[in-house]
Write the structure tokens for this entry.
Amino acid sequence: MKTLMPINNYPPARSDWQKNRIKAAEIKKYLNQGNSFIDATTITQNLENTRNPDRVMVEDILQKSLEIETLSPFETACLLNVQEPELWERMAETAGAVKRKVYDNRIVTFAPLYLGNKCVNDCAYCGFRRSNHTIQRKILNQEQIRREIEVLVGKIGHKRLILVYGEHPETDVDYIADSIKTIAQVKVKTRKGGTTGIRRCNINAAPMQAAELAKLHQAGIGTYQVFQETYHLPTYEKLHPPGTLKGDYLWRLYCMHRAFEAGIDDVGIGVLFGLYDWRFEVMCLLQHALELENKFGIGPHTVSFPRLEPAANTSFIDNTSHKINDENFKKLVTVIRLAIPYTGMILTARESATTRMEILPLGCTQTDASSNIGIGGYADLFEGQQAERQQFILGDTRSLDTVVRQIAEAGYITSFCTAGYRCGRTGSNIMGMLRSGREGRFCKLNAVITFREWLDDFATEETRKIGEKLIAQEIQEIQEKLPEFYNQFVKYYDDTNNGKRDLYF
Ligand code: SAM
Ligand code: SF4
């Protein structure tokens, strides 16, 4: 039996602003005979019917991942049920190989910027929930946003942000659009005399109506990211009280459908791991990706897999029975990479530095650094204050310079590339390029050029030295493996060396 959806209850009683937010018609139109695409019964059956898969079958599945084909639910369930440690090692190696085939050895970096922590919802695990009266509430005004960007761009050297918002009338779609405009206007002088700024703003905000999403598209957002938190309906309903906006499972589940219809073709899905059984959640992420592929021809641009972290005055986190240990965390990252081989995978600073260095080789493509999740936290820190408005507690507070250096020592090049969406390589245009490995060529070329920029503008001497060695190897590889791009690459590289900024393929 498929999961039956409570579509007759829209909208539940709410305050004025909240009352008209959920549009039942913008859910119902996507349902399949009243059912959602999350078929809990079949998922559970798949997980039960694939116990102890044999090695030959697993090898065949890995081959399919290496051909950058999305796995079926049955194949994914097989991988999730592997028992032998040796076979897990083999899967981890393959996950790394899949990532290199699609994205080369680059890791894109970004910073989170929290713009407000007022929220009408009451999620049991989140420090921003409305019933948490112990935190200071704040929403940045446009001048305060500008100050944050001056630090992020001018002092740290970021080019790409994920903007994070609570769900609240003061941070509605117009506020979000205004904040993007403000951010785009901030330009900062670099060491070499040019100017630089934020080149891509991704958004992590509540599910919205199609008309609002069209506004965000017009405002020029990058990826629109919403995590389902848990796809398991009974758990979802327990953790998100009825009558709150977030309490509506289907409104959230179908927000990416509305985003595609509104013209946004870069979407990011995710699970907050630690709320329910991790194997079930990985199966649902795959189901979500397949649904988007089938309906729109475009899978998720990114998948996120945050693990539950401690938050101020939030006892739920100590009491959940689904906490994910490090071993299972590695497994779930490995299987997501193998099951949805083309997708970007985001590893955040929620994890400790040590864990991040272990998880990165399993196929991650993006990571944040120098992160601060206090509201106004970047400018505060540079003015010597500690922000006390955090949503949860970060595990890794290494500076961007340190992260760049340490991942360079491990053989990865940090990329500040934001070219893809500016060149129209998004949505259906990019799906074929990712699957065929053609996008990886642009990843490499743009990674080297943007890395050159960053080393010149922001790196410490120690990091610059290590970075130079890596760049020398990368240039040699470009000459050998991408001869058709080499001349143009050398021109862009030399121009960048001479102070030109923002050149890309
Ligand atoms: N309010 C919007 C929403 O809920 O979709 C977007 C912002 S919310 C601040 C971003 C994400 O933070 C949530 O989707 C959730 O997955 C994550 N989060 C919340 N509490 C967390 C915790 N204690 N540890 C780790 N991540 C958490
Ligand atoms: Fe609000 Fe998002 Fe936190 Fe829930 S997770 S309380 S919606 S900020």
About this structure: The chain has 23 helices and eleven strands. Residues 1-13 have pLDDT under 50 and may be disordered.
